[in-house]
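Suppose you are handed a protein chain with no further information: no name, no annotation, nothing but its sequence. What can you learn? This example shows the usual starting point.
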Amino acid sequence: MMISNKIGKALFDIKPDLIGMGGLCIDYKFLKDAMGIIRNLSPKTPVVMGGGIINHDYEFIFNLLKPDFCIIGEAEETIVKLADMLKSGNKDWESIDNLGYWCEEDSVVSTA
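A reasonable first move is to predict its three-dimensional structure. Written in structure tokens, the prediction is:
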């Protein structure tokens, strides 16, 4: 319950345009719980996931946790390009290196 309150307060106070999450495989339960809370309280806010949990097996984790995007490998340039593209309304995801995203057929596409 405490994590739900903390995430809810942060979503209410900050009203983010993009939420970044990540961790290692051991963090799966927390990430799953946090994703459920975010989807419940802020369903339209895009979520991008990265870190070791994604780098190890991005397609498997992407399908389980269902973030909007994932970053495979180094994220510094990718996250900036993704944020800029989301802000502009452009959806040319395939032009961003190291990005995982959903295609129209509900399958994962990767540019890594």
